[in-house]
Amino acid sequence: MGHCHDLEAIRRELCAIYFPQCTEVTISWGRWSGRVQPHSMRLGVYQPQKQVIRIHPALDQAFVPRYFVEFIVYHELLHHAIPPTRINGRYCVHSVAFRRCERAFPRYTEAIAWRKQHLRRLLESNRRGHL
């Protein structure tokens, strides 16, 4: 459990509503890496071999709304539900079907807008490496 957001509760709720096939997927907060990208950061990652989702700890802050954390967890659960496909010899992780399902998240538009508006603040907290 994080300081502000309970990832396990979010995962359980999303699995109950959208992803009954994902109950074996585990979730945790990642670690502050110290590596800083100037204009972006990886907010979540799914490791299919381990069936583990890691969420960036910068999202465990009071200013980050729960629906945004839910959206990131939803996106990572989609990686389990819709594995990469091979197209012309290359893996396509975010296929047309994946993007369609991603847009089905009830607060998709709001989550994308929130990310655009607050990415700089998340990047700044990432640079500090602490909350």
Map the helices and strands.
Blueprint: H1 7-17, E1 26-29, E2 44-47, E3 52-55, H2 66-81, E4 85-87, E5 90-92, H3 96-103, H4 108-128
Parallel strand pairs: 1-3
Antiparallel strand pairs: 2-3, 4-5
Helix pairs in contact: 1-2
In short:
This protein has 131 residues and is of the alpha+beta class.
Q: How many structurally independent domains?
A: 1
Low-confidence runs (pLDDT<50, min 5 residues)? none
Rg, Cα atoms, Å? 15 Å
Annotation field: number of helices: 4
The portion of residues assigned to helices is 40-55%
Q: Quick check: average pLDDT?
A: 90
H-E string: HEEEHEEHH
Work out the number of β strands.
5
**Which structural class is indicated by helix and strand composition?**
alpha+beta
Describe the structure.
Helix 1 packs across helix 2. The chain has a single domain, classed as Zincin-like (2-Layer Sandwich). It has 131 residues and is α+β, with helices and mostly antiparallel strands. The strands form 2 sheets. Strands 1-3-2 form a 3-stranded mixed β-sheet, covered by helices on one side. The chain has a two-stranded antiparallel sheet with strand order 4-5. It is globular, with a radius of gyration of 15 Å.
Keywords:
131 residues; alpha+beta; Zincin-like; three-stranded mixed beta sheet; 4 helices; 5 strands
